[in-house]
Amino acid sequence: MSESVEKVSRELLKKYDRPGPRYTSYPTAPEWSADFGPEDYRKALRQVAAENDPLSLYFHIPFCKERCRYCGCTTVITQNSDRVEKYLAHLDREMELTASHFPIRKRVMQMHWGGGTPTHLTLTQIERLHRSIADRFELDPGGETAIEVDPRVTSHEQLRLLRSLGFNRISLGVQDLTPKVQEAIGRNQTAEETVALFNYCREIGFTGINVDLIYGLPYQTVENFAATIAEVIRLGADRVAVYSFAYLPDLRPHQRLILPGWLPSAEMKYDLFATAVDKFLEGGYVQIGMDHFARPTDELARALEKGRLYRNFMGYTTRSTRDSIGFGMSAIGELAHTFTQNLSRLDAYGAAIESGRLATYRGWRLSPDDRIRQQAILSLMCNFVLHFDDMDARFQIVSREYFGPELGELQTFIDDGLLTVDDDRVTVLPKGRIFVRNIAMVFDAYLKKDGKEGGPVFSRTI
């Protein structure tokens, strides 16, 4: 069992609590360039088409009936069915434009529908979208097929349809089960309906049920957040993500409905995070990265034990497909050592697709140095270790020389008992796992340019 966060002093939490990337990509999205456009993306697609490796697919379904006040996702609030139908037609056209680069249907080992609220779609719309995907890609029956759902709007009929279509993993947005917290964030979701939906997902055969929680929300206390955690553990969620609430009312005007005085203090937020780590570890969960937890029987926990955990834009995964394609507004893909992102406004995305163009508006082609640092950061973020021999063999470098300055910067983490550096590896110690983002930042060359280290574009690390 990992060391409890209670053994980390509040002073240490304060020391490392600063803005920093979550490293769903390296280089991070703020570095990507508008000079990378549709033609660059087409070149990457053609390169992938010549290879036999399987793909991951992500579909962004941005629609919600109403906006939760804490939300930081790219969403569209609508009850207009025509807008949804038009968007699905655009998704179909985008898939056609993309798949036209592949001489044969590409095999898919991982698919994820995110949002927004994917279950905003009707039964007919869900089935039609899935059929459009299956017509253009070969969905491996042994792959992971996942979807994010809102328990307030998801019906048993939708769940049965999703299972019949091959979805095997489901992620339930919960955030917090305390009524006063829910009222403050505009998400009234009773514990009873959450538990009922969870149990039904288990009953009809979802092999993996994830739960998302958030700490730092209005009116959270150690006591009421611990009660939410206890219920999640009692239910037996296979995986749990515990995210920090990023309060950015200037960037997200809807968050102005949350008054600053409602929020827990910085020190209370540390206690909330400490409570989450302690309770899940005491409940027998394995820590995955900084803020994810999995039951020991879950494949994520087994992959961590074997050092085979991977991370992409869909989160932590055991499906280490090298290439992923994103569909829909704001969707991100990674393929042939490039990143690409679609236009983030619904009308602009639709106009691009209707004109027969891919909707790419920015991206990045990784340099040799980017690829080396990407792998180092992935190794630390996923498996809490960086093996020099592996890096040397993969990239034909001498890691201790290549990362000489970085290894020197790690001394402060060594002094604080968070990691060790030996002749053959960097190892993040159990107490250091909650600071793994800070450790990964040492290897980020872009943060050190132009005095941007830990700049305000990122959420805080604790």
Protein model, in words:
By secondary structure, the protein is of the alpha/beta class. It folds into 2 domains: about 1-20 and about 365-460, Orthogonal Bundle (Arc Repressor Mutant, subunit A), CATH 1.10.10; about 20-325, Alpha-Beta Horseshoe (pyruvate-formate lyase- activating enzyme). About 35% of the residues lie in helices and about 20% in strands. The strands form 5 sheets. It has a 9-stranded mixed β-sheet with strand order 9-10-8-7-6-5-4-1-13, sandwiched between helices. A hairpin with a 2-residue loop joins strand 14 and strand 15. The protein is globular. Residues about 1-5 have low confidence and may be disordered.
Q: Layout of SSEs?
A:
Elements: H1 10-16, H2 38-49, E1 55-61, E2 63-64, E3 76-77, H3 81-99, E4 106-115, H4 123-136, E5 137-149, H5 156-164, E6 169-175, H6 179-185, H7 191-203, E7 208-215, H8 222-235, E8 239-244, H9 266-282, E9 286-288, E10 292-294, H10 299-305, E11 310-312, E12 315-317, E13 323-327, E14 332-335, E15 338-342, H11 346-354, E16 360-365, H12 368-383, E17 385-387, H13 388-395, H14 399-402, H15 404-409, H16 411-415, E18 419-421, E19 425-428, H17 436-441
Parallel strand pairs: 1-4, 1-13, 2-3, 4-5, 5-6, 6-7, 7-8
Antiparallel strand pairs: 8-10, 9-10, 11-12, 14-15, 15-16, 17-19, 18-19
Helix pairs in contact: 3-4, 3-11, 8-9
